[in-house]
Amino acid sequence: MEKSIVSKILIVGCGLTGSVTANLIRHEASSNTEIWERGNNVGGRFYTYHSDTDPKFSVDFGAQYFTATLEFIRSQARPIFKLHRWQPLSFATTCSLFVNDGSSLRIYDELLDMDKLVPLGQKIENFRRLSEGKMNFVAPDGTDSLVKHFLDKADAKMCLDHEVTEINLKESEKVWEVKTSSGTVKEFDAVILTIPVPEVLKLKGNFHDLIQDDDTRIALEQVKYSSRFAVALLYKEPMKSIEELPWSMKYFPKDDTICFVSVDNRKRGRNSEIPSVLVHTAKKFFEDREWSEEEVKNHIVDYIKQILPELPEPTLTKCVKWPYSQVIDAYVDNPGCLVLNEYPCLICGGDSFTESNFNGCISSALRIVEELLKHVSIAISSKKAKHSEA
Ligand SMILES: Cc1cc2nc3c(=O)[nH]c(=O)nc-3n(C[C@H](O)[C@H](O)[C@H](O)COP(=O)(O)OP(=O)(O)OC[C@H]3O[C@@H](n4cnc5c(N)ncnc54)[C@H](O)[C@@H]3O)c2cc1C
């Protein structure tokens, strides 16, 4: 069957999967791609809070660090993309996808060369032993800098405050009509959803009719996430007692209230900057009852006083709720993505189809674009075609 030609592509969600997908599409063709993000910032679960008053002051609220093998990343260099055949996810497979000699698809390499990712260089307290050769990395400019890096090269139109609520197939025109909570309605030739599966299932529209197959619906409904809060304790000036803590990240494996604490500036190797302490609550704490953000902040500040009495009183606290934090049960067999419809193309991806980490998102983005290109040819937008002719 001949491939359909698409010119207008919509990516829903601007986390790591969405930004890398946009970047990979740009790598293939200069298309008319838009990204619709419901929040007023990019990053998703790679969210970093940046202070309005002090550009140096920021805190990672979601993902904290990334695990990879430096030698492997650097040593693997082979052409991959268009002809790559998908294999089940493994760390080695994932890394081998990252490097494409002679072309611009060098995802890990590029981040390391540009110091967007640097080795952690510190021990994490109560951390499981890393298997041989693996290393932890951090993003010195904040985890959202990774998403911004991919976005900058994607050449896609970014639309913040665009919460998709409904997706309908217009069969006669072979397009998707997409609606947002603020009333925007627009048609696209292909739609890529990079939001957690439970959120896909909450969307309205006749696209649900495409999930007629009971096995697929059940498999989608079985995707499960953990939930947690992230609370940041913010300070106005350097604090000796924080500088003197013997760790920059610590897990609390037996605690029902919190599971992880990091001294964010130290984690990123920025010891001299104003400190901030980030706390992730335990799964049980979230599930215990309905909490308001104010209650969570007060409770966590009091609790931290008990278990880490050396920490000073914070000047300010901030709280983020992560109802879909990390995947507990991914989509069966971790396929990387799921094609809900071939023509017009509708694809779901993100960590629901892999695993909740950097590699999982990159693998999903690669799979999404691989599937997209199986079903469509991307038409170069007329504006961009003129531009490149000039
Ligand atoms: C507390 C926490 C700690 C973590 N720690 C680590 C770690 O240390 N290392 C690691 O590698 N990973 C970690 N992870 C996991 C990692 O953050 C995720 O796997 C990854 O960010 C998922 O990226 P994504 O792009 O697939 O999804 P997301 O980042 O969730 O992006 C989806 C985007 O879609 C938007 N969206 C949702 N619904 C709609 C809609 N209807 N319309 C428009 N936009 C919508 C969301 O606002 C979001 O921006 C952690 C996650 C959390 C929450």
UniProtKB/TrEMBL annotation:
GO cellular component: extracellular region
Organism superkingdom: Eukaryota
Any one Gene Ontology molecular-function term assigned to this protein's record: oxidoreductase activity, acting on NAD(P)H
Pfam families in the cross-refs: Amino_oxidase (PF01593), NAD_binding_8 (PF13450)
Span of domain Amine oxidase: 121-372
This protein's name: Amine oxidase domain-containing protein
